[in-house]
Amino acid sequence: MNHPVKAVLFDRDGTLVEDVPYNGDPDLVRPVAGAREALARLRARGIATGVVTNQSGVARGLLSEADVRRVNRRVDELLGPFDVFAVCPHGPDDGCGCRKPQPGMVLWAAGRVCTHPADLVVIGDIGADVEAARRAGAHGILVPNAQTRPEEVTAGDHVAPDLATAVRAVLDGVPRGRVLVDERPIREAFTTGPGPGRCR
């Protein structure tokens, strides 16, 4: 029997909300299609929810940590309440252990919701999200969008065409199988190169 998932951590930009590069304006926060319903299904099942987000705009001087907090509060107002928010403010060359694909944020968030990584799923839109899950000992599900590189889709152990599909799979236990539900041809749908919002 597939054992139940106890917590799901989501990437923020491009997964839960529309990706606005280096967004510091709460008024620009827009949930992706199906996000509210997907989160409601998890919470109705007693599954903890959280957000793990790289915010290198802080290190680049494009955002303040207060800006990030304001945007996170808006995300929580629209889609919460979340049990945990984890933010990495560092840049890709800072060598920190929290920036995805490193596992630090996932492990910290797992501790905050008192969940072993093996009972946790990370859902995100780029390879760094699922790689952070793998390194933490958790399970990752890739939900591709226009910023997702084709090679990340090809390499993903678990790929879902949309957030609702990913969450439906989680409700059945830890993910199994490469493409969770073949509702549309994922490889054909996501063949464009990385867009301007990818590096965050």
Question: What does this protein look like?
Answer:
The model is unreliable at 182-200 (pLDDT under 50). The chain has a five-stranded parallel beta sheet with strand order 3-2-1-4-5, sandwiched between helices. It is 32% helix and 12% strand. The chain has one domain (7-189): 3-Layer(aba) Sandwich (Rossmann fold), CATH 3.40.50. It is α/β, with parallel strands linked by helices and 200 residues long.
Tags for this model:
single chain; 200 residues; alpha/beta; Rossmann fold; 5-stranded parallel β-sheet; 5 strands
Integer average pLDDT: 89
The level 1 CATH classification is Alpha Beta
Assembly annotation: single chain
Q: Helix coverage percent of residues? A: 25-40%
SSE pattern, N- to C-terminal: EHEHEHEHEHHH
So how many helices?
A: 7
Strand order, sheet with most strands: 3-2-1-4-5
Task: Classify the fold: give the CATH topology.
Answer: Rossmann fold
Q: C-alpha Rg, in Å?
A: 15 Å
Concise overview:
The protein is an alpha/beta fold and 200 residues long. The protein contains seven helices and five strands; from the N terminus they run βαβαβαβαβααα.
Give the SSE map.
Elements: E1 7-10, H1 35-44, E2 48-54, H2 65-79, E3 84-88, H3 104-112, E4 120-124, H4 127-136, E5 139-142, H5 150-155, H6 163-171, H7 186-189
Parallel strand pairs: 1-2, 1-4, 2-3, 4-5
